[in-house]
Amino acid sequence: MRPAQANAPRVRVMRGRPRTLPSYVLLGLALMLLLFPIYWMLLTATLHDDRLLTYPPVFFPAPSSVFLRPFVRIFANRPVLYWLLNSVYVSGLTTVISLSISALGGYSLSRIKTPESRVMGAMLLLVRMLPGTLLIAPLYIVFHRLHLIDNLVTLVIANTSYIIPFGVWMMKGFFDGIPKEIEESAQVDGCTIFGAFARVTLPLSRPGLVATAMYCFVLSWGEFLFARTLINSANKGTITAGVTTYIGDMNISWNDMMAASLLACLPVLLIFFFLEKHLVRGLVSGSVK
Amino acid sequence: MMRPRLSLGQRRRLFCTLILVPETLFVFLIILYPLYLTLKLSFFKIDLYDIAKPLTSSPTLHNYAEMFADHAFWHSLKVSALYTLFATPLTFLVGFGLALLLHQPLRARRAFRVLLAMPWAIPTAVGSMVFMVMFDSSFGVTNYLLTRLHLVSGNIDWLGSPTTALATIVVTTIWKNCPFFMLMLLAGLQAIPVEFYEAARVDGAGRVRQFVSITLPALRSIITISLMLNALWVFREFDTIYVMTGGGPARMTESLAVSIYQEAFRFFRVGRASALGIVTFFVCLGIVLACQKPLRKEFY
């Protein structure tokens, strides 16, 4: 972008103003539309019980009418605290395991080009295209045989299996950007091969590791099908699967439902805010380079 | 006995092969074995209760025969296809538009990008619940706004009527997936050398001409790959549909993915579910093969 401004200043001065104003208007409009559901979730979550079924809806409630009881109530009515802790546990562990395997696999795919590694890479791409719903029945059977149904470890394994194909290619993209010569010179200087990988290459690929970790975490946190199918007990669910239990419950009011939904989004949104920059680079290097 | 000492290159290669092992194990045990299991089970009539027992009957093509004769299967295939054909191109257009808007010298570009990409991070199931609330037939904000704008005359039962249920799901999908296209295409746009545009301007090419002759060809492989990835996701999308309608009303939104789930976990017919899964797999494979050329170019 910047060179365009530097090289063609006249064009920008002449046409810049009138052209960017509509852009801001359009972007503002897009922002309103895309963020409206999030705003609405917040509004509904803080709606007073008495005003749940009133029409027309209030778009800008007075600060005094903000009602916070749903946020307290949901912890008493449902095992929301368990769900949150389970989600942190499952997503955290999934991230650590997926990241380790992805970093190793991605490095390998980036550095050697043997027929086997190519087959492996192609296999991962293929796996990435498999429908999750296709795997769910056989995964259920496998875990049933292992007596692992209703066990959070199952979720970690299942999530890892579907995240790894993305993670490996993402990490490969980052490693491709680090010249081989750097680690080779470290090896000449007496570093072991693993030492060169651990002390030279890994630190250099920190942005990639951060991006991949975040990607793993967000994907794992939002995973619904496995969490819904492989876990039976109410206390063992994740927050994403847990909040959907509000659907169809006639006694549940919308403010409770949206309060729980908001709690389900908050951690990932926070992570996303701080690490978005890395993700953009990761998406690009992982899937499109 | 002394072991023959390997050269540095050989050791490097050995190391790289060794560290591929965990990933290979995972792929084989957790993905390829279940895939094999699906294929096997699709030839048997088996209940979810009986999965622990050994298979006694001989394999038949019964599940497939039944499936192809079943009107519900063709209906599900149609729903999945319709859903993909509407959601993917529309999401692409929205995402492309956003990417083009962001690819300008604007103030607070980064803030715009972060905020616009937020739906990406929200769990699909949770986002779908928010849309359920917004599209509620009696108290939903969508009906209120549309009535106030005089676009509709009465309240619409968005998720309860066969004609609008899939459309509502498509809208939710666009909201959730457009950041993906936006980020991918934005990155692609930023990789196009500015000199191309300068040369075109010197030659007197207008904005439209520049877009058609430079931007589109330069983005071709990113466009194909992102369309393909998105089409694959949408074709097998489960969360949105399951949460919003569960396949209803009257199975109008029962896509293949939902159908597989219902067969396996509601009717416990694992064999039939597996056969459906195999068909889904082949459709997905078809989509991938159709896009093979740009894929190869990008990944190898």
What can you tell me about this protein's structure?
The complex is a heterodimer of chains A (289) and B (300). Chain A is an all-alpha fold. Chain A contains 13 helices and no strands. Chain A has helices at 2-7, 9-45, 69-77, 80-111, 115-128, 132-145, 152-176, 180-188, 193-204, 206-222, 225-229, 239-243, 254-288. In chain A, helix 5 packs across helix 7 (152-176) and helix 7 (152-176) packs antiparallel against helix 10 (206-222). The model of chain A is unreliable at 1-16 (pLDDT under 50). Chain B is mainly alpha-helical and 300 residues long. The two termini of chain B are 43 Å apart. The model of chain B has no long low-confidence stretch (mean pLDDT 87). Chain B has helices at 8-18, 21-41, 62-69, 71-102, 109-116, 118-121, 124-134, 141-148, 162-190, 194-202, 207-235, 239-244, 256-265, 270-290, 292-299. Chain B is built from 15 helices and no strands. In chain B, helix 9 (162-190) packs across helix 11 (207-235), helix 11 crosses helix 15 (292-299) and helix 13 runs antiparallel to helix 14. The interface between A and B is large, with 111 and 108 residues.
How would you summarize what this structure contains?
The complex is a heterodimer of chains A (289) and B (300). Chain A is mainly alpha-helical.
Spell the H/E element sequence of chain A: HHHHHHHHHHHHH
| Largest interface pair | A-B, 111 and 108 residues
CATH architecture of chain B: Orthogonal Bundle
Strand content of chain B: under 5%
The CATH architecture of the largest domain in chain A can be named as Orthogonal Bundle
CATH topology of the largest domain in chain A: MetI-like fold
Radius of gyration of chain B from the CA trace?
Answer: 25 Å
The share of residues in helices of chain A is over 70%
Round the Cα radius of gyration of chain A to an integer and report it.
Answer: 24 Å
Q: From the helix content, strand content and strand pairing of chain A, which structural class follows?
A: mainly alpha
CATH superfamily of chain B: MetI-like
Give the overall silhouette of chain B. Answer: flat
Secondary structure tally, helices of chain B: 15
* Fraction in helix of chain B: over 70%
Q: Quick one: how many beta strands of chain A?
A: 0
